[in-house]
Amino acid sequence: MNPADAAPVLRELSIQGEMLERHEKMMKHVVEEQTVLRQLVAELKGILLTPPGAAADAPSPGPSLSTREHPLPAPEKFNGDLDKSRGFLTQCSFIFREQPRSYFSDGAKVGLMVESMTGRALQWAQAVVSMQPAISYEDFLCKFRCVFDKGSSADSTAHRMFSLKQGWRSVADFSIDFWILAEETGWQENALRGAFINGLNENLKRELASRELPKSLSALVNVCIQLDEHRREFGRRPAGGSKTSAGPSLEWRREWEEQPLEEEQPMQIGRASFRSVARRRRPQGGECFTCGKRGHFSDKCPESGKDAAPAANHPPL
């Protein structure tokens, strides 16, 4: 097809795509409005069917009919990852609390959870719902926690707190995991202080041993973060103060560099007397012990036959 003929077609397709996108947004808005309208009709129907004498005994009404719920985004898809199960339940419970009229029934709550599942989690939900189509939300939630929420018990949380160690990571990164477990355990601040200090690496513990620690837990964590940042910053600086690369430094010196060079003695003639000194100075990097060059060994050194020549030119003393 000629590119000139294809341009109008592509432009028309782009216009159609934009129209479809606008129509999709309008349909979503209409569905939301219909949901709110059905809720209002159900509330009006309940009011009309209530006997007049029972109105005085009825509990105080909730939000007025004019109050509209703001739809919240759906929770993140849950595929059965055990580490994300508690976050998924938190998102769902927040939606149920903020939109009580949209999820007033057990079926609506279970439906939202099932719609937000994928992979193995969806397979499990399908098996549960197929066996118990009218399962209540409490029973469904209990089964969900039994399968996917393995770290919610107090003993499990305490074990993870005692096993939490800083290692070689920063205190700032370590403190995030610590605060999460601190909220889950519900321990007193004194116990949390001990658990936090116990999880620090040994170098930082030695630094804290000579300092007066703050009384509050949050202040203690901040002090440890600042101390760790200072240690890491100055650990990357040499004695002169100029910054070096953040990578590990190789602090080693060769043996021949550490030994002082022997001065030439006046009675030593030729290079034969320096052979032992030269060999001690040779680095272990593949150099010849005779000439110090690479590419050959000392038994095949071209310089080995020249040692006696200079000495023969000098008359004996």
TrEMBL record:
GO terms for molecular function: nucleic acid binding; zinc ion binding. SMART domains: ZnF_C2HC. The keyword Metal-binding applies. SUPFAM superfamilies: Retrovirus zinc finger-like domains. Residues 288-303 form the CCHC-type domain. InterPro entries: Retrotrans_gag_dom, RTL1-rel, Znf_CCHC, Znf_CCHC_sf. This is CCHC-type domain-containing protein. The keyword Zinc applies.
